[in-house]
């Protein structure tokens, strides 16, 4: 959100008047707030389900709003959790829905949390049958609305594991009235054994992806993570696995005496999984092959085969940052359900299994789900329709390096291909001759595309993908003369020859900048399991290929690169060495899907006519605003702290908690001195943006105090006029030139144009002649630079920037680095929030590291990183610090030992970490941690891991 909060325009009275006027015009809108958490009662219960050996007890919590009574019953919502979670994982969403008047039932699926039984992977015989049991329970309550005796008015929502359960439950139990599955699968077989060789016949939707046939490429790393979550229980969890009990893990080792050794081995191997699922995984992990037995287990847990039974209106939410369940899974679900005539709405968002969504996006998705249930369960609220929305494309990567996803949403009347209007495609020619590619023996070394499930961390590292020389064929387009927004899955036809008649390949669509920098959108690859290939390179086999579905903007001057590799570390690979040949079919071109729509303004991108309307009202009420601002200024001016001019920013015990119990920031304290460039670091969800929003007066802290130049900072505080900010998007008006945007923005502050230092800000940001062209023609990088110039107007004493280098190419990033350092050298102060650790390391003098809403480290970059080959040694007992320091200092080649809040930092020189650790242990010194501190990313990962 781009905000002028640093320069208060209106008193509360005038702001309230404007809000009222705009609300009458239909400009201000929003969902009604949820009731306070204290209006929601909870009831815990253990509900029996199943029969015989498959009988279990489900651990449940019912969230009951005060408004739901026998005289006025309410619709109900079942909330299912993700894999590895429990009913506690969805507690915040449950309270929110209950606060809006729904009776909400959350439960731990069998094998998870405190529920008994074993994991069946959403098996219709077990987990889906459990849902029917819960529906029976709801139907017996007099405070739940009924459609008929035994038939409650009910919706089901859930993500991932819970999302598939919602789909399956709607297929198997006709009492389900509406569902909202998120980031889930259509076919578990296709998701874990993908094969994107081929093009879906008659599929006119943007993300149509081939469904796996008899073979596929085993998604080895994701499957291992998936299985590992539910395997190898310890303590009480092991005893539960041996006796059919629950999935809670105890802390102590169990007594296994007297138990059958075969049962113990199975429990240790399979953990909480049912035996057939365990066997299927072990078969797949050992061979990497999709056998009929494995396919039977996965197909049983897949909605794909029962979509024709779903009549409940369906909201499908899928993430663009998801290498586990891609956009193609939601596409297949949408096509299958819509074929019944059932209402389907599709929402793509910036996030997924590889990267958490931002707070803003999370809030918007919660409103989408609530609006869906309001209309389809209550019959209230506007009809959400059967449209389609996706994040506005940007030129940023979403794999290793940075996070993809614009700050605005593009709305489309319907999901292309479901209502007869096929997706629009653009043909982009690519060139490159026939190229030999090597498959290494054992599949190693292997290319690196993304780290499954770790997008929020890997995106912060500023790294790139890794391609192994000789293992891939490359085909490039010409430089683009106009920006290209890819929304969905591109297709192309290759020609492949393999001496063995088969090959495993991985197709990728790279974005190549003019300086040669490559970006792999969302870090996604398309695995290809090819058989029946020609052995003759002179007569190759044509192979149609569907590339990964992405949302990405290829900027002017960039090229599209099709790269086809023989390895990828996330997948099972052939063990036999081979040399194959890959080329393009005659006349082949990339067929790229585009989905035009209307960009919807968010809280940070006000429509230009709204801004003009506000200015018009200001003109009419100018004299009133001036008087009220003048009166309020003296009344609100607080007594400044004596060191206020030397400490431009101080957080003291700041906490931000929301009504649903979620704590975004907890007890945050730090200071920033004049002339410093401070980097605010942390993974998604760390609380960085919330902290900046409190600093700018957009939201109030629950506890604590924020001082700007010694004065209390809050909504409308006069001292905020000394602050310039750029947070969550540019908010520029596309029909105006960059210069007009800057001029209009400054005019809204009511200050003389001479005070803007307009030309200085333009020069500092390096905007050039393009400043006099309409913003709609700008690249993402140019928009970013105009927004930063806007933040610098008036040359504020405190400059706050959130992700300032998003959309900039390397030369622009280098220039921005110099701008920020030079700005601080004038005695001003700069705060930079960023995911790009390399930029923080090269730009900032000081760093504050946050995780889960708390500060976990603060200091200069040198203090956080350490020097040279330094390591951080965390001691079990601080009383051992002196002995440990003396011992380390006496080792050959070690440098000085530095004491920090986290432990001892020392350059070991020629001493290995193993030798240092062994010496400490021999001396009786307990060591909790020994980690490298050579780079900021090492320190960051270590610190975040500890938190």
UniProtKB/TrEMBL annotation:
Sequence intervals crossing the membrane: 608-629
Domain ABC transporter: 649-877
Keyword set includes Transport: yes
SUPFAM superfamilies: alpha/beta-Hydrolases (SSF53474), Galactose-binding domain-like (SSF49785), P-loop containing nucleoside triphosphate hydrolases (SSF52540)
Alphabetical keyword list: ATP-binding, Hydrolase, Membrane, Nucleotide-binding, Signal, Transmembrane, Transmembrane helix, Transport
PANTHER family reported in the protein's UniProt record: ABC TRANSPORTER, ATP-BINDING PROTEIN
InterPro entries: AAA+_ATPase (IPR003593), AB_hydrolase_fold (IPR029058), ABC_transporter-like_ATP-bd (IPR003439), ABC_transporter-like_CS (IPR017871), Galactose-bd-like_sf (IPR008979), P-loop_NTPase (IPR027417), Xaa-Pro-like_dom (IPR000383), Xaa-Pro_dipept_C (IPR013736)
PROSITE patterns registered for this protein in UniProt: ABC_TRANSPORTER_1 (PS00211), ABC_TRANSPORTER_2 (PS50893)
Signal peptide (UniProt feature, chain positions): 1-36
Family according to the record: Belongs to the ABC transporter superfamily.
Origin superkingdom: Bacteria
Name by which UniProt lists this protein: ABC transporter
Molecular function per GO: ATP binding; ATP hydrolysis activity; dipeptidyl-peptidase activity
SMART domains xref list: AAA (SM00382), PepX_C (SM00939)
């Amino acid at each position: 959100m781009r905000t002028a909060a640093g320069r208060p325009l209106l008193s509360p009275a005038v702001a309230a008047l404007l809000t009222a006027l705009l609300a009458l015009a239909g400009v201000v809108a929003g969902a009604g707030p949820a009731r306070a958490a204290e209006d929601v009662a909870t009831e815990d219960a253990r509900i029996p389900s199943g029969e015989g050996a498959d009988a279990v007890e489900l651990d449940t919590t019912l969230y009951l709003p005060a408004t739901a009574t026998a005289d006025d019953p309410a619709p109900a919502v079942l909330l299912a959790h993700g894999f590895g979670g429990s009913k506690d994982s969805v507690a915040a969403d449950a309270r929110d829905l209950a606060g809006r008047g729904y009776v909400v039932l959350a439960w731990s699926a069998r094998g998870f949390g405190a529920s008994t039984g074993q994991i069946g992977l959403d098996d219709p015989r077990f987990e889906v049958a459990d849902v029917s049991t819960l529906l029976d329970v709801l139907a017996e309550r007099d405070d739940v609305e009924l459609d008929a005796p035994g038939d409650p008015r009910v919706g089901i929502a859930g993500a991932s594991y819970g999302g598939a359960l919602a789909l399956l439950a709607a297929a198997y139990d006709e009492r389900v009235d509406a569902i909202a599955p998120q980031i889930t699968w259509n076919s578990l077989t296709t998701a874990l054994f993908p094969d994107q060789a081929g093009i879906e016949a008659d599929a006119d939707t943007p993300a149509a992806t081939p469904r796996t046939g008899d073979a596929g490429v085993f998604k080895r790393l994701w499957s291992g993570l998936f299985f590992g979550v539910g395997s190898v229980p310890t303590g009480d969890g092991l005893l539960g696995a041996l006796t059919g009990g629950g999935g809670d893990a105890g802390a102590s080792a169990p007594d296994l005496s007297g138990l059958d050794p075969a049962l113990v081995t199975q429990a240790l191997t399979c953990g909480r999984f049912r035996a057939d699922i365990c066997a299927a995984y072990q078969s797949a992990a050992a061979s990497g092959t999709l056998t009929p037995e494995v396919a039977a287990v996965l197909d049983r847990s897949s909605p794909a085969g029962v979509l024709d039974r779903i009549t409940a209106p369906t909201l499908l939410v899928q993430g663009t940052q998801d290498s586990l369940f891609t956009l193609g899974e939601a596409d297949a679900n949408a096509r299958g359900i819509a074929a019944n005539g059932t209402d389907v709405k599709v929402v793509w968002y910036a996030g997924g299994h590889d990267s958490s969504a931002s707070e803003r996006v999370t809030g918007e998705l919660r409103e989408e789900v609530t609006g869906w249930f309001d209309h389809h369960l209550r019959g209230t609220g506007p009809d959400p329709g059967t449209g389609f929305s996706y994040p506005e494309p940007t030129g940023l990567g979403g794999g290793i390096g940075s996070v993809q996803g614009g700050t605005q949403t593009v709305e489309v009347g319907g999901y292309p291909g479901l209502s007869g209007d096929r997706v629009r495609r653009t043909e982009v020619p690519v060139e490159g001759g026939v190229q030999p590619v090597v498959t290494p023996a054992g599949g190693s070394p292997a290319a690196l595309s993304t780290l499954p499930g770790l997008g929020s961390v890997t995106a912060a590292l500023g790294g790139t993908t890794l391609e192994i020389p000789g293992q891939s064929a490359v085909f490039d387009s010409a430089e683009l003369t106009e920006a290209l927004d890819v929304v969905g899955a591109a297709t192309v036809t290759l020609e492949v020859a393999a001496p063995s008649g088969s090959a495993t390949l991985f197709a990728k669509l790279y974005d190549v900048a003019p300086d040669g920098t490559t970006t792999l959108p969302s870090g996604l690859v398309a695995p290809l399991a090819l058989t029946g290939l020609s052995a003759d390179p002179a007569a190759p086999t044509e192979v149609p290929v569907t590339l990964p579905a992405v949302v990405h903007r290829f900027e002017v001057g960039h090229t599209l690169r099709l790269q086809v590799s023989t390895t990828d570390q996330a997948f099972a690979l052939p063990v036999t060495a081979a040399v194959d040949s890959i080329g393009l079919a005659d006349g082949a071109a990339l067929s790229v899907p585009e989905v035009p729509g209307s960009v919807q303004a968010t809280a940070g991108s006000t429509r230009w006519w709204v801004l003009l309307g506000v200015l018009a009202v200001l003109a009419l009420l100018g004299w009133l605003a001036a008087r009220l601002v003048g009166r309020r200024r003296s009344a609100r001016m607080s007594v400044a702290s004596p060191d206020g001019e030397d400490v431009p920013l101080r957080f003291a015990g700041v906490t931000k908690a929301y009504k649903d119990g979620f704590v975004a920031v907890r007890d945050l304290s730090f200071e920033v001195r004049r002339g410093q460039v401070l980097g605010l670091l942390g993974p998604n969800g760390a609380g960085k943006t919330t902290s900046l929003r409190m600093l700018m007066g957009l939201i109030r802290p629950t506890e604590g105090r924020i001082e700007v130049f010694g004065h209390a900072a809050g909504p409308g505080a006069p001292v905020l006029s000394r602050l310039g900010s750029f947070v969550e998007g540019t908010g520029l008006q596309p029909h105006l030139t960059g210069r007009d945007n800057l001029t209009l923005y400054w005019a809204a502050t009511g200050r003389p144009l001479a005070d803007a230092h307009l030309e200085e800000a333009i020069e500092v940001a390096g905007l050039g002649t393009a400043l006099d062209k309409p913003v709609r023609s700008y690249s993402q990088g140019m928009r970013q630079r105009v927004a930063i110039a806007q933040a610098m107007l008036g040359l504020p004493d405190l400059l706050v920037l959130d992700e300032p280098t998003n959309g900039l190419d390397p030369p622009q990033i280098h220039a921005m680095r110099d701008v920020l350092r030079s700005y601080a050298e004038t005695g001003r102060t700069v705060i930079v929030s960023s995911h790009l650790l390399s930029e923080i390391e090269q730009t900032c003098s000081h760093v504050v590291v946050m995780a889960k809403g708390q500060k976990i480290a603060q200091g200069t970059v040198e203090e956080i990183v350490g020097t040279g080959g330094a390591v951080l040694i965390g001691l079990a007992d601080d009383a051992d610090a002196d002995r440990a320091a003396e011992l380390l200092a006496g080792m050959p080649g070690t440098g000085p030992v530095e004491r920090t809040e986290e432990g001892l930092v020392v350059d070991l020189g020629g001493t290995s970490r193993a030798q240092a650790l062994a010496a400490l242990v021999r001396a009786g010194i307990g060591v909790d941690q020994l980690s490298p501190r050579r780079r900021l990313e090492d320190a960051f990962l270590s610190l975040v891991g500890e938190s």
